[in-house]
Specification:
It contains 3 helices and 8 strands. The chain has about 150 residues and is of the alpha+beta class. It has a single domain, classed as Hotdog Thioesterase (Thiol Ester Dehydrase, Chain A). The strands form 2 sheets. Strands 1-4-5-6-3 form a 5-stranded antiparallel β-sheet. The mean pLDDT is about 90.
Length: about 150
């Protein structure tokens, strides 16, 4: 069973012409772009977008990507791509759900794993920055306060 995530964000994507084959079906490799849009929206929500990463001298490469395709997307389909955090202490793990906005059908589900790299040193760190973890915890506390 997939672990339930926290701090979900959703972005909308419309399958463009240049992402489809002759049968008007989205090529599977383009889903990584759709997931990436949702992942950056999640990082922006946490105040740790690209500029913050660069300023801190950090790189966050994806070291693992898993995708399960449930049905095809076609040219013009409008998709909702939801990203939510699963882990955020020693690595960043994000779950994704891609659904068709018109029908509500599940299109794909995925998971990415990222590690932290100290860019000036070129070395991997085995714990995420305390400031980032604090941002996640503050966002979780705010979400709980809104729900309560």
């Amino acid at each position: 069973m997939r672990k339930r995530g926290v701090l979900p964000v959703t972005v909308e994507v419309q399958v463009p012409f240049h992402d489809v084959d002759l049968a008007r079906i989205a090529w599977h490799g383009h889903y990584a772009k759709y997931l990436e849009q949702a992942r950056w929206a999640l990082m922006d929500r946490l105040g740790h977008g690209l500029e913050a990463m660069l300023a801190a001298g950090e790189g966050w490469p994806i070291v693992e990507l898993q995708v399960k395709y449930l049905r095809a997307s076609r040219f013009g389909d409008r998709l909702a791509v939801r990203a939510e955090l699963i882990e955020w202490q020693s690595r960043l793990v994000v779950n994704y759900l891609v659904t068709d906005l018109a029908t509500g059908e599940r299109v794909a589900r995925a998971q990415t794993t990222q590690v932290l790299v100290d860019m000036p040193q070129g070395t991997m760190r085995f714990a995420l920055p305390a400031a980032f973890v604090a941002r996640v915890e503050a966002a979780l506390a705010g979400e709980r306060a809104d729900a309560g």
